[in-house]
């Protein structure tokens, strides 16, 4: 019966509004409502894209702690609301089932991961840092002075056994703390992908 | 760029690109890798701007070009040298700019020379240069002598002219494969448009002559007067979301935050450090020591300078070399945050081997990247690998508060929009918790070596606060404990009374969090947006903008006014913040004349001379070595760009066959191929759907659907020769390995002639690895680890390969 009604209205050339009136609601309103439903009750929060160095603005639509929708920030002067395919796909990272969500440990020689707690992971790493730091501490470089030909002992107070890679993928504050952390524990061996 | 202009950063901004009249885009496929650039380039094009693209492939960027030239990878300096020669011969340079804003008139040491491809001072044993002969002739006041005219045979300009007289269009054609007439056309179009902008990215830097290629750009732009101007500049399109910031923060072995030189083993005291680096750095390193050690850094204890580790300058520990050191078992513990070296390092067998030498690998990332699971790469037996691996789950960009600095040097703040997924945490929290745990382990120690940990100022709240960290970067008045309002206040504060973790960020949170500003008004219409976020230094949007004015301090381009001297108010005013020492010092004062204030000469450097400014005429009476003000940034492989063949090249350098490749290149790969066995040139590139090593993008289903696997892009000629059609599997091999991928047969690559010989370029994207939702062979299995001697950047863009049908 539904089908025939629809067919009838189509054939009779009546307007959509008339059709809607016949159905008891206005599709224009319903359509707008449908779109609104997706974003209804969401909070718009600006953020920054995480791919190239454009620093394009993104708007995140968040509801009950979930990312519902992501689009270009129309107020951002660089991208004026547009996003490239990569940036547009960042919606999926927030809810990806492939994210690592717990600290993990792979034991020497093991063929799989085991989940561990943050506390445990931090303890393991802190202890290892101390162990390697203490064992590889270098007080001085022995350098031959080019002018005198004599070997000089130059104080360096440096850790030789720890290196830190990172990172152009983290925030300024994190990148800064990486450097500060390295310098305080005594390793100058901090590099990252800006080099390559 | 830093040896030319004094700072290593993109000079202009994304939105400034619309102001250009002509673009040279060479070494960047921005349409795919920096799509936002195209928005502004297209806007300029609509206003009549011309676009020149030089690339080994006809890229998506090239599809928008008015002039396109296909170049043999790694030969940029040959055609750029020919353009420099043409500019000088035809007197196309901006005479006033060259005289006032470059070192063209300064006299070069009479010991300087270039002979058979080697600059003076070369030591064949160490493969390094002694740079003493690259200096200026100095007067009794220790200042460079200035020639009367640029015709003076000792002047920088004359040296430049003589150097590039060898680079004719015909020579450049033989080397680069670009027809001579096309190079002339590029030169004519580029020189005619004012302002003219150069854009580059990794296509230019990933060579053993990467730094020198950018130097060639700098020479062209200084000759044409295009630096410091809206619509001009050299726009280094940085490759990662925060690579500008992470470079500012010095996640690099040779620096401390804010581009301070890292202390070395001969710096026994702060004074030694200043003798080597100049008094300019005194305020900044002391402020950093105050930020790190607070009240434990005092004048009496040399501001805690002894608490910093000192490097051995004889050891090169740049990223690829660091893996070499790791492979020799130097490191027992590696932290790996936000990087995927097993995919991204050239000749990646080195990484695979080096990681097995560690006791422990600590990874923090979003996904289980290849580097985190190197112990189970196909073909590897996990039981053989004794490295313990700890993986921390990292929070993503929108799950944490903090700032990133984009290519335009805009420090942009964002609040956390979401809670971190599952148990993941920001790296900030991880580092904070870890440092506090380590400090606890050392509690009570009186050992000298533990003092830096125990005496550090480290308080970012119970719940680690990114804002507190940014405030540390912004800086405090240490006498009151209050935030310093602006960078001006920081610079005025007496040494030892101010702290900042990174002086170029001083003031970013001084008057509220300026990085969070969202006023997008642009009253000048020049795309400056100076109330949107905050740009370092001091909210200057176009670097070196003093050079946009004439000697009287008035803008030379009436349509694009950045700053000007307001004689009535006795102050520099403008649409942009002035890149000036002091905005109350007029254009006729020594300070007000400085166009490139970060260089010791105060001008742009056509010739990258060795020089330290401010040395006293007489040696100090106390017998101690004198402290100068500021040393010049130099290039370790020469004061002028010279063309050298890539490490693996299909031909010999016709300028100097005996010194064919860079005499300073750092070759890490042990297997080097020759053109008899590996006749084709491989160049690697990125595609819009994937990002760098693919750690994120290969885990996004949408992107994998559009771009599921890597491929080898070859010309129709080559396809016919090896009898493959599109979609066939091909094996691409180098002296280091081989991989099998699908063939993409295309018109975007054409056969060309090099020194008369037919040559083929093969193109391959490199973003794949064995893990993720969309695994694929890693192109870095076959690339070469040969590094630029100054920057340490590998020559990803050129190596020799062979190709054949795989099935």
UniProtKB/TrEMBL annotation, chain A:
It is found in: Cell envelope. Its cofactor is [4Fe-4S] cluster. PROSITE patterns: 4FE4S_MOW_BIS_MGD, MOLYBDOPTERIN_PROK_1, TAT. InterPro entries: Mopterin_OxRdtase_4Fe-4S_dom, MopterinOxRdtase_cofactor_BS, TAT_signal. Residues 1-20 form the signal peptide. Its main location: other. GO terms for biological process: anaerobic respiration. GO terms for molecular function: 4 iron, 4 sulfur cluster binding; electron transfer activity; molybdenum ion binding; oxidoreductase activity. Keywords: 4Fe-4S, Iron, Iron-sulfur, Metal-binding, Oxidoreductase, Signal. One of its GO terms (cellular component) is cell envelope. Residues 42-98 form the 4Fe-4S Mo/W bis-MGD-type domain. The keyword Iron-sulfur applies. The keyword Ubl conjugation does not apply. SUPFAM superfamilies: Formate dehydrogenase/DMSO reductase, domains 1-3. It comes from the Bacteria. It holds the Pfam family Molybdop_Fe4S4. Belongs to the prokaryotic molybdopterin-containing oxidoreductase family. This is Formate dehydrogenase major subunit. It comes from Desulfosporosinus lacus DSM 15449. The lineage of its organism: Bacteria, Bacillati, Bacillota, Clostridia, Eubacteriales.
TrEMBL record, chain B:
Its main location: other. Residues 9-436 form the Molybdopterin oxidoreductase domain. Its cofactor is [4Fe-4S] cluster. The keyword Ligase does not apply. GO terms for biological process: anaerobic respiration. Signal peptide: none annotated. Keywords: 4Fe-4S, Iron, Iron-sulfur, Metal-binding, Oxidoreductase. Transmembrane segments: none annotated. It is found in: Cell envelope. Coiled coil: none annotated. The keyword Endoplasmic reticulum does not apply. GO terms for molecular function: 4 iron, 4 sulfur cluster binding; electron transfer activity; molybdenum ion binding; molybdopterin cofactor binding; oxidoreductase activity. CDD domains: MopB_CT_Formate-Dh-Na-like (cd02792). Residues 682-799 form the Molybdopterin dinucleotide-binding domain. GO terms for cellular component: cell envelope. Belongs to the prokaryotic molybdopterin-containing oxidoreductase family. This is Formate dehydrogenase (Quinone-dependent) catalytic subunit. It comes from Desulfosporosinus lacus DSM 15449.
